[in-house]
Amino acid sequence: MSDKLYLEWPFFAPHHAALERALDAWAAQHVAGAHADDVDAACRHLVRQLGEGGWLRHAIGGTAYGGAGDSIDTRAICLIRETLARHNGLADFAFAMQGLGSGAISLFGSEANRAAYLPRVARGEAIAAFALSEPQAGSDVAAMQCAAVRDGDDYVLNGEKTWISNGGIADFYVVFARTGEQPGARGISAFIVDADAAGLSIAERINVIAPHPLARLRFNDCRVPAARRLGEAGQGFKVAMATLDVFRTSVAAAALGFARRALDEALARATQRQMFGQVLADFQLTQARLAEMATGIDTSALLTYRAAWQRDRGGKVTKEAAMAKLHATETAQQVIDAALQMFGGLGVVSGQIVESLYREIRALRIYEGATEVQQLIIARELLKEI
Ligand SMILES: Cc1cc2nc3c(=O)[nH]c(=O)nc-3n(C[C@H](O)[C@H](O)[C@H](O)COP(=O)(O)OP(=O)(O)OC[C@H]3O[C@@H](n4cnc5c(N)ncnc54)[C@H](O)[C@@H]3O)c2cc1C
User: Fold this and answer.
1) Catalytic residue among 368, 372, 381, 385
2) Where are the alpha helices (DSSP H) in the chain?
3) What pLDDT sits at residue 179?
4) 370 Cα: distance to centroid of ligand 1 (angstroms)
5) How far apart are CA 366 and CA 123, in angstroms?
6) Cβ proximity of 201 and 217 under 8 Å
7) pLDDT at site 32
8) Binding site membership of 132 for ligand 1 (Cβ less than 6 Å)
9) Residue with CA at minimum distance from ligand 1 atom 19
10) Whose CA is nearest to atom 44 of ligand 1?
11) From the CB of 372, is ligand 1 less than 6 Å away?
């Protein structure tokens, strides 16, 4: 990137700029250009590296548990995701999942649960996962069927979870299951389930266009101590939404990182590729496209860091986080597509950076609330404000 003047925006404190610059240098040395044949092994390795580098301290809340601060610094996790995404999509994924997978423990865990799990997450010694979605309950979370029935000091879980990132390599899962206190969203609770718990199995590994560990989980009379419940019984939906509230803005940041990388690649290509007696960047059609890309990226950055800043001040960010995620992911898709187009045939060759960005960005428009869901959230908040 040519400059990083955005780090001087009033959204940031001086330590944020220092964090970004240190991580950028670290990532260039440790994770840039890493190509994963075995994604499970690569992901485990990245989690360890990120732990050793001290970056995962930002993924959890609580200095007593090895965290960088007492609560999660949203601007820090956004800057980290943006920077890692610019260097290596799988490194961003590894960081993000440590945060999302343990977020409910940081926010709602008992003292004992925080002490048992968070330090290992922060050191990169335990891999975390977040298990909310089901085959029949994706966008419609409240349609969840996976059930947890109280039996003495335990809950007994039965059902399935799917699309679970880190499924198959995680050491523990934060699982949301129906406990039935009330119908719909008010009858769900959250639990920490260790990967080696009896009755938990990997029903299927799922291959996606940008490979990362992903699985469908099956719970068959899986016993979980009641002490591993996160928050009150029946409050699981609130736990899930509060966790997503923190991390949704960081999805926008990851999209921003992918888009910035695509623009860098496009600029390099357009200023080198000779055609018709000049270079591609000499054509006004190309310049118009570059201008659109850069403007879209800055808009995404403004929305992303506005939402992160607002959350760090303690404000409600439902609408702002949804705007950031919606805009940054959709814009990144367009920016990356435009960059790939400038590469011509080379753009679709496996292993080219623009080709991998093209695959990386796609799922971000779907997970943690698809674009249409974000639109509904924004409109609902607007209508409430009348
Ligand atoms: C790569 C990847 C990683 C994931 N990781 C995790 C994870 O770690 N943990 C986890 O719990 N889940 C995870 N998910 C699941 C993800 O959150 C769901 O895929 C998402 O919520 C959409 O659910 P669905 O796939 O069932 O699609 P559906 O709910 O069937 O939705 C399909 C499409 O319908 C449209 N739509 C949805 N609602 C509306 C509406 N109201 N009006 C109009 N159109 C609408 C959207 O375009 C949406 O994409 C992951 C998914 C992917 C692809």
Assistant:
1) 368
2) 14-30, 39-52, 74-87, 89-108, 111-123, 236-270, 284-312, 318-342, 353-362, 371-385
3) 97
4) 6
5) 30
6) yes
7) 84
8) yes
9) 367
10) 372
11) yes
